[in-house]
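## Example record

The block below lists the input lines for one assembly entry, exactly as stored, with component labels intact.
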Amino acid sequence: MTGTNQRQLEIDAISKRYGDTVAVEELSFDVRAGELFGFVGRNGAGKTTTMRVVLGVLAADRGEVRWSGRPLDFKTRRRIGYMPEERGLYPKMRIAEQLTYLGELHGMAGRDAAAAALQWLERFDLAERRNAELQTLSLGNQQRIQLAAALVFSPEVLVLDEPFAGLDPVAVDVLSEVLRERAEAGVAVIFSSHELELVERICDRVGIVDHGHLVAIGSVEDLRRGGPVRLWVDGPAAGEDWLQDVPGATVIQEHGSRRLVELAPGGNDQAVLQAALRTGPVREFRPAEQSLGELFRGYIEEDQR
Amino acid sequence: MSVTSPAGNSPRPLPAVILVARREILVRLRSRTFATFTLVMAVLVVIGIVAASLLNGPAAPAPAPAVRVGFSGGSQALEQSFESVAALLSVDVSVSDISDEAAGRAQLTAGKLDMLVTGSATAPEAAVTDAVPAMAVIALDAATQTARLSAAGLPPSAVTSVMSGVPLEHVQLPETSPSESTTNVLGALGVCIVLYITLGAYGQFVAQGVVEEKATRMMEVLLASVRPSELLAGKVLGIGFVAILQLAIVGSAALITVELTRGASIPALGLGYVVAYLAWFVLGYLMYATALAAVAVLVSRPEEVAYATAPVTVGLVFSYLLMFVALSDPTNPVIVVLSMVPPCSPILMTLRIAYGVAPLWQVFVAMVLTIAAIVGLTWVAGRTYANSAMRFGARVRFLDALSGRRST
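Predicted structure tokens for the full assembly:
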């Protein structure tokens, strides 16, 4: 893969092993500026390793990470806002000072950093506690400070490892809003999460990683298109064998008279409808959209095989 | 949300090393530990100096009182000659005429006279108390002999020639000669103990600070924006600044106390010496702090710090123990050699400087070797930092951290 000079984060064939354990293998994808990218996978799939490699806190054995077509170096990495999986801030430092310090370390002048720190504290409703030590805050509030630490210097790229973990529903909404807003402002945002509904709701694209490999990438729409077609059919008069004559169609779930039918690739949904109508009235016939969760399980099982 | 862009026309951002150092300074100066530690050290040093000055009485001995000599009768002719010889011999005398011998004896027994001279100028007799220094008696002998030579008919020029003393050359001892005074030993000991405590304490602060950043995972956030070497340098310099500030406070307390207790004759506490101690503190601190940071970064939990830093701490403790050998025998060849070699040089050389037994060239060699050690340790710490700052969990083996390989 050759670099492009578009504003995008390119993760190009990175591999990383810990001893004999493969953390990631030939992993490639990119995140464009202005895009909200969800990174999902089971625990130990390689998400955190990938993010650490992007931030340069971990060196990849092979592969390269580029921003705007150029390999990331120390200077460009400073334009990345990072929230590590294991939260890291000074427990005994005052929160506003802590955010200001991080802003300055990322190249802001002191006064600008202090102003930005205060703005983010206001945004997360913590301005009144600006002089509190981090350790005196609740875990949820500490999490907000950790997010503010990644945001304070207006990064061009945001890499957030499980930013929603441990947040209350209100905080989840605030953070979703902030991430959307940052993406709209042209920031490339990548975050990992196990909250698949949330990822489905807010992300432009999703990458599913398993055993260090990227097993699927695209919008949730794209992923659905790649999967099997499923239909909800409600025919109260239909018996056990009503689908017998439709090749490639199988009932995979039954809820009373409602049945979920899965079609093999190339299957004919109209043949299913006709088979249902032959048994009597049909009250419901509609495509069943798979949730990201279902898609995810599908990909993981496929990868297992 | 609009946030001021760092790329705007705002003032230039500060270098990372300064930012890291500034944070260390602010956080530590604000902590109660600093205030308490400084106060305790200052109080101990002041108490030490006061105790030492009480133990030794006034440091500068009071000038001996003048020897009171009374002359009666014919011996009064000796007075002038006696006074001039006494002056040559540096004996302070006060001469008086005594009307008769009995009155003189009465004054002698009443303690109002130290020496009573009676009889003639050529055959005087003298009664003295214990307080009379030998030099006063010699002066009287010389005056009498001069009188006898004159009485025997020798011309005055011959008398002067006979009585002229052997010319003496007073040799100024070099400054580096060992001073045996107890106060100086105590001063040197005090300086070295303060140095040892400060090196140990601030070295440990560095080690704990490094591990704290690993334990709280702050390291991961920091290393995304700061180079390991910058983080290390900022921490060592920031904590070092706090240490020097504390030493300045404790040192001022010490100097003021020395002034007030008139212990100013303790050469080990002179201003020039204090500057030398400070230089050695800076070198010792840089050496030990860098070494401690290099090994502390191998572990991830605060409770492992002591274990990880033990190899370095042993060097410090070893030189502290040697200090007691050096106290009694500062010119011992083993001590002389070790005082030039890291890791012992900061403490042992400071002690030898305090004693005034360190030739300049040895101080120079010790400084060059210590600076070389600091440079080497900075390289080592850079390696171990880069290779183990992001390795959490089990302790990273030192050689693995140095070579960058993983033994797992």
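Chain A touches chain B through 47 residues (CB under 8 Å). The two ends of chain A are 28 Å apart (CA to CA).
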